[in-house]
């Protein structure tokens, strides 16, 4: 009888609840206070607002952004807002006496974690000790910081072991190194890090079993007591909005962009949505569901931190969805008429049972429909699979899309049949543990083959499902296509380790492989050879044919070098025209020589560059491990020294490292160091060699030549120290000194010897090409000495004219405008073109001494010299022959029409004061010669 009256009471109570749930005509105004700014983290509430779910519940809801994570708790307790979103720290607030009530859990797992810059080693949270970290606010309550501090304590990193600083919520602080770690949401900051290419490690409290709830919808006891129907309606509408938002992520993202905030772009909002799926678990758990045991777990963690008492009770903290407040006291007054109502009660009882059964079936049907909708609309590929036969039992559309196969095709296949063999082995091993109930789930990164043969990378998550009695066990397989991410990672790795032009390993990969090969050599007691290869004359190819053709040559050179070595050897490009080779497991020394010679032979063959052919050679330096050095730096240094020895010996050859080369390198280093103080210590001297007019014998020109009087070494040849000065940049200061000394002496000789006396001074290409208005200072100095520009001649090499840059043209124009003449030194030995002589203002050609040395009637050198002289005169240029040492050479050149001669036949280079005396001694014959010539 009591059961029957209870059924009647239930019917009455249900009717009362239905009446209470009918919305009033006027919408009730309530406020929802968020804990952060608008983002996908609160998408369900926006959906409930924009789709009219709140309106249908009779509510006019105002949704406010949060200035900090504790604003919702403050405003709800103060009555400024009726509802708020909060973290698991709401439990601490409740235990502190604050009347908060959690209505539902949105995030089944907290997204809160700690991010640190990758160190290159295995991730280790203990790196935080002694560092700076942004974890929560330092002025307000802990908020989410409590779960991170609990995690760090459990990992042996208490809060006293590092410095906490105020949280700026700005990822740039971590990227720039302002802090060493920062608390993040795994749904948010990683997207920023990935876009900027910032390498990071994430540390989650879940790694040590601390599994807090994330965002929670809550209210106050006052709101629940005064407006129970409104609380129920608000909660139901909110959960309905969340179900829609998680099933319609792209539409929800567009809704946020158009109605709420554009702080984040659409790509970031969808990133948030994808990251929220495993945290919210909309397919597996009804949104809003909360487990008392999970809250007890959170309470135990807080108790372990000393933040609340152990075994504390938190009655009333969790909202009961089906709570009924209908009083049953009036039912007991009906006991007087119990006999009269017995039949009626029985009828009502059976009627209610039927209606309850119908309602239960309807609920089940709606639940199944909702699950099916979520299953089909999930952004993850989901399949239900027989764990014994591996047959597919259910497959959603996204799973089919990722595999590139229809449901019919998949029904004819078995799970893992299209997987990569290497990955299938690993997954089957995990499945063995799953089917024997040693584990309940696992994750893996796997590859599968699509019908077109392409490989797709997927993140796989497998969870066991409780089997029905007598049936096979099943598991749920969820997959996500991460091919684009994997390709991006591969591209980044490729760009970091391989040369983009030749696709050879770059310096970083070369050093890594060399270190690995050296360790293997130590174990095997074998030898390694390192070859340092530098292409000879590559710069001329770049200058004459252009950098694009130079790149084509480098690609072909890389291919040729690689073809000369074994697959187990390494060929790398360090940069420019420099290549290296690592030869491992050497059995005999002649093996290295055969390979080096093969490389020289292949590189000496012509390179086809479109309509042109280019010819280069190579200089190779060879060093052996462990014979020559025991560490990488010394090996590379010795190989480089050997390469320069090969260049110095004439190029197109290989040279082994020897201790002598090391001594020579040390000498060069010490000489460079001494060179830095030579100018200040006045160790340089200027020598002059006369340039004689061949027709008259007159001397009114001279070439200035620098000499270095080293205090210990004595006179150092320019051939030895000029290259060092160019490499160190000291050539610019030395060139300035030469100019000022030359100007001083030419002023004296124009006054005392000849009014049109000229001094030629050599310009290094580095001096000539340097930035800035290099000759302005020269011109000002010449004006201060009342000297015209014609008093100086600047000698440059042919290689400078091959540089098509505007800087070279501008320098030559500046010299011409100032009246300073230009001589082209060593003419005929480089890659000159007649077009350069026509294009630029050149005044003198200097025939190289290699032509003069072998002059004889009817010789090829004589023919070339005559051709140069005729060509120069046709172009209006004067010709100076260098290296004149015999009267026969002088006479042949004079007969050919050469204008000037320079060499030991006339005088050797001599110090300035001796040359001054030489000019005075030769002044009268010179003057007589001039009169005679005129």
TrEMBL record:
Residues 526-659 form the GGDEF domain. Residues 442-494 form the PAC domain. CDD domains: EAL, GGDEF, PAS. Residues 668-923 form the EAL domain. The chain crosses the membrane at residues 330-354. InterPro entries: Biofilm_reg_signaling, EAL_dom, EAL_sf, GGDEF_dom, Nucleotide_cyclase, PAS, PAS-assoc_C, PAS-like_dom_sf. Keywords: Membrane, Signal, Transmembrane, Transmembrane helix. It comes from the Bacteria. Residues 1-26 form the signal peptide. Residues 367-438 form the PAS domain. PROSITE patterns: EAL, GGDEF, PAC, PAS. The keyword Secreted does not apply. PANTHER family: BIOFILM ARCHITECTURE MAINTENANCE PROTEIN MBAA, DIGUANYLATE CYCLASE DGCP. This is EAL domain-containing protein. It comes from Duganella margarita.
């Amino acid at each position: 009888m009591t059961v029957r009256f209870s059924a009647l009471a239930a019917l009455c109570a249900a009717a009362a609840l239905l009446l209470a749930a009918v919305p009033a005509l006027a919408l009730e105004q309530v406020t929802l206070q968020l804990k952060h700014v608008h983002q996908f983290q609160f998408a369900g509430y926006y959906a409930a607002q924009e789709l009219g779910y709140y309106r249908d519940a009779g509510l006019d809801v105002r949704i406010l952004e949060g200035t900090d994570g504790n604003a919702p708790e403050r405003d709800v307790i103060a009555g400024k807002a009726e509802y708020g979103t909060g973290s698991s720290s709401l439990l601490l607030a409740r235990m502190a006496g604050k009347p908060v009530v959690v209505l539902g859990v949105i995030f089944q797992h907290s997204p809160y974690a700690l991010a640190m810059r990758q160190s290159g080693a295995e991730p280790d949270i203990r790196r935080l000790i002694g560092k700076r970290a942004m974890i929560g606010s330092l002025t307000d309550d802990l908020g989410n910081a409590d779960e991170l501090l609990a995690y760090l304590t459990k990992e042996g990193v208490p809060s006293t072991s590092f410095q906490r600083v105020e949280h700026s919520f700005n990822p740039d602080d971590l990227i720039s190194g302002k802090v060493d770690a920062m608390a993040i949401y795994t749904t948010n900051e990683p997207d920023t890090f990935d876009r900027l290419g910032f390498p990071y490690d994430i540390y989650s409290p879940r790694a040590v079993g601390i599994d807090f709830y994330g965002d929670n919808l809550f209210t106050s006891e006052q709101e629940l007591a005064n407006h129970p129907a409104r609380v129920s309606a608000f909660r139901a509408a909110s959960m309905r909005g969340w179900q829609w938002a998680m099933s319609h992520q792209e539409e929800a993202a567009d809704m946020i962009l158009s109605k709420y905030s554009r702080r984040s772009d659409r790509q970031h909002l969808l990133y948030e949505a994808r990251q929220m799926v495993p945290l919210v678990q909309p397919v597996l758990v009804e949104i809003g569901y909360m487990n008392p045991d999970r809250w007890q777990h959170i309470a135990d963690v807080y108790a372990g931190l000393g933040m609340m008492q152990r075994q504390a009770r938190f009655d009333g903290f969790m909202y009961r969805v089906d709570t009924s407040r209908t009083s049953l006291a009036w039912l007991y007054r009906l006991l007087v008429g119990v006999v009269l109502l017995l039949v009626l009660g029985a009828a009502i009882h059976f009627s209610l049972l039927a209606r309850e059964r119908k309602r239960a079936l309807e609920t089940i049907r709606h639940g199944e429909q909702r699950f099916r909708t979520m299953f089909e609309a999930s952004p993850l590929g989901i399949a239900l699979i027989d764990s014994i036969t591996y047959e597919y039992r259910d497959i959603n559309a996204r799973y089919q899309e990722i595999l590139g196969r229809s449901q019919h095709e998949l029904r004819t296949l078995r799970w893992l049949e299209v997987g990569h063999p290497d990955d299938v082995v690993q997954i089957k091993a995990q499945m063995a543990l799953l089917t024997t109930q040693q584990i309940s789930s696992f994750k893996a990164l796997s590859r599968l083959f699509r019908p077109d043969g392409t490989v797709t990378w997927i993140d796989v998550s497998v969870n066991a499902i409780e089997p029905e009695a007598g049936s096979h066990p099943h598991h749920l397989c969820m997959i996500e296509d991460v091919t684009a991410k994997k390709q991006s990672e591969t591209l980044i790795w490729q760009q970091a380790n391989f040369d983009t032009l030749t696709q050879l390993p770059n310096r970083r990969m070369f050093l890594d492989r060399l270190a690995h090969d050296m360790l293997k050599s130590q174990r095997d007691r074998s030898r390694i050879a390192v070859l340092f290869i530098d292409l000879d004359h590559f710069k001329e190819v770049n200058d004459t044919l252009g950098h694009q053709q130079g790149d084509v040559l480098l690609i072909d050179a890389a291919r040729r070098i690689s073809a000369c070595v074994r697959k187990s050897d390494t060929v790398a490009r360090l940069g420019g025209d420099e290549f290296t080779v690592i030869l491992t497991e050497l059995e005999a020394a002649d093996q290295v020589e055969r390979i080096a010679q093969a490389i020289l032979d292949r590189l000496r063959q012509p390179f086809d560059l479109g309509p042109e052919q280019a010819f280069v050679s190579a200089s190779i330096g060879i060093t052996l491990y462990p014979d020559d050095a025991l560490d990488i730096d010394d090996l590379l240094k010795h190989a480089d020294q050997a390469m320069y020895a090969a260049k110095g010996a004439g190029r197109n050859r290989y040279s082994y490292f020897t201790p002598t080369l090391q001594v020579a390198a040390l000498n060069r280093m010490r000489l460079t160091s001494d060179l830095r103080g030579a100018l200040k210590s006045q160790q340089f001297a200027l020598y002059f060699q006369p340039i004689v007019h061949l027709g008259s014998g007159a001397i009114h020109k001279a070439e200035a030549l620098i000499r270095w009087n080293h205090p210990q070494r004595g006179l150092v040849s320019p051939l030895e120290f000029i290259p060092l000065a160019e490499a160190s940049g000291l050539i610019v200061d030395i060139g300035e000194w030469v100019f000022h000394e030359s100007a001083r002496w030419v002023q004296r000789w124009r006054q005392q010897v000849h009014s049109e006396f000229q001094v030629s001074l050599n310009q290094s290409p580095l001096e000539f090409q340097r930035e800035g208005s290099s000759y302005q200072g020269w011109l000002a100095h010449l004006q201060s000495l009342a000297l015209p520009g014609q008093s100086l001649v600047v000698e440059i090499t042919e290689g400078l004219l091959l540089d098509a840059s505007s800087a070279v043209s501008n320098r030559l124009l500046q010299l011409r405008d100032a009246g300073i003449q230009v001589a082209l030194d060593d003419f005929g030995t480089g890659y000159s073109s007649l077009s350069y002589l026509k294009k630029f203002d050149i005044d003198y050609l200097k025939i190289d001494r290699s032509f003069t040395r072998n002059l004889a009637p009817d010789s090829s050198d004589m023919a070339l010299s005559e051709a140069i002289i005729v060509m120069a005169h046709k172009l209006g240029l004067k010709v100076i022959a260098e290296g004149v040492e015999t009267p026969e050479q002088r006479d042949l050149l004079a007969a050919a029409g050469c204008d000037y001669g320079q060499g030991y036949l006339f005088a050797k280079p001599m110090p300035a004061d001796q040359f001054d005396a030489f000019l005075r001694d030769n002044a009268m014959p010179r003057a007589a010669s001039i009169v005679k010539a005129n």
